[in-house]
Amino acid sequence: MIIILLSGILIGTQFNKIFLDKEILESSQKIGEVLNLTHKYHIDDVSTEELVEEAIKGMFSRLDPHTIYLPAVDNEISEDEFRGNFEGIGVEFQIIKDTIVVVSAISGGPSEALGILAGDKIIRIDGKDCIGFTNNKVIKSLRGSKGSIVDVEIFRPSNGNILKFSIQRDKIPLYSVDVSLIFGSDIGYISLSRFSETTTRELLEALDKLKKAGMEKIILDLRNNPGGLLSQAYNIADIFIDDHKLIVYTEGKKPEFNEEYFAEEDYEYQNYPLVILINKGSASASEIVAGAVQDWDRGYLVGETSFGKGLVQRPFLLSDNSAVRITVSKYYTPIGRMIQRDYGNGSEEYYRELMDRSDIDSVQGDSSQFLFKSKGGRQIISKGGITPDFKITHEYLTDYSVELSRGNVYYLFVRNYIDKEIEMDIMHEFPERELFIHGYKIDDRLTRRFVSFAESQGVKYRSDQFEKDNNYIQTRLKAFIAREYWKNEGWFNVLLLNDEQFLKAINLAESLNSNSVSN
Predict the structure, then answer these.
(1) Mean pLDDT of 205-221
(2) Calpha distance 255→89 (Å, rounded)
(3) Active-site residue identified among 104, 180, 284, 401
(4) Deepest of 156, 283, 335, 517, by most Cβ within 10 A of its Cβ?
(5) What is the CATH number of domain 85-173?
(6) Is 295 considered catalytic here?
(7) CATH architecture of 177-315+327-392
(8) Is the CB of residue 460 less than 8 Å from the CB of residue 404?
């Protein structure tokens, strides 16, 4: 037995020497030596775990911007988002001045069923004061296995009462479809926020619902959708693209990462006129869908050039439930456009370029290398990301408006206003959403109060900048109020009617017939 054991150790050692790169073995040994010396001799107490995590991040900083390390907690949250659900009590929350404030109870979850409301303040969890909790600590405290119980005490500002709830945790859906609405008589609008395991099913359900309401044309909003699962990207594209056409292909260093994905299923929505909205925040899976639709002349794209993330990550789980996601290949659209932007100047420049992008079609050097033709012969400019057929760029906001959003002033003001002014009964004056959308106005008195409140939050009033963004500011205020009463349906209805990109999409959709895209 001893001989067998020693032989196994010897064989394992030789196996490592043969199959592991010598440079990797020597570097691993070097890292171990430095870690050991630091732990043994550094004047301060050090966390070996933190040092290792920082070393991994430092190593990955030399690679592409999307190869990342995820600590165990972050990896768990990320996996929940990919699955499209988690187990917990079902609330969206924000921490405001060290207090957990419920933004909304998630539809179909246990908190909604028990009557927990937007604006409720969670002050104790399982008998313990939770003032000052971080986001991660709130998540750890409220999430748990399905069927388990958590006791929560809530202060309700609208009546000044403290309420106690024993909430049985359940599986909570993370919806990919934010909202689905009919505009006019026959234009269906769907906002898609992520690509998780449930996205295809959710989108088909939304399309079926809108079809029953009279939908004959589709606007799919992929703005600020950061992507997600590759499988869901080509499944979504398949809903709109017919005849077993190529949707996307990947190429990597290793042959096993070279793959092609084709349309497979037949859907009735493959003949519906289609317009897709994209912007700088549309990335990865969003770009796969938009690129395939554009390459096959299946519909029009409206908005801004997309993010330009065309790198495929393969997740690898580590022993402590943390994970690394390592880039293994690149995406290409059906006509061969590489979606990925250049990242050769490092991550900092990579993200700065996105913010500074003017979205102008000027091309440096040999322009022929950036020109492609769609399957129908339309000329497409490609310099990383997906360039829309119709560019509608939002005007840059002033510093004043940026500070209002950064400081979460809109939400704080509306939450405070509704909590303290109970006599403002929106539901009495505007019992239906449509009445509110077309009848409610942000008057001068409320605007002045908002400006004063913003100053109390450290946002100094700048008259010239306020006047420039006045319409935007009033629209956001109205949208936040609408969300308190009609959730996402109220929010989107208010914002979209003042959205130039959406209004252009409406105009295009009205002009389209089945499968009509001009060459």
Answers:
(1) 97
(2) 44
(3) 284
(4) 283
(5) 2.30.42.10
(6) yes
(7) Alpha-Beta Complex (3.90)
(8) no
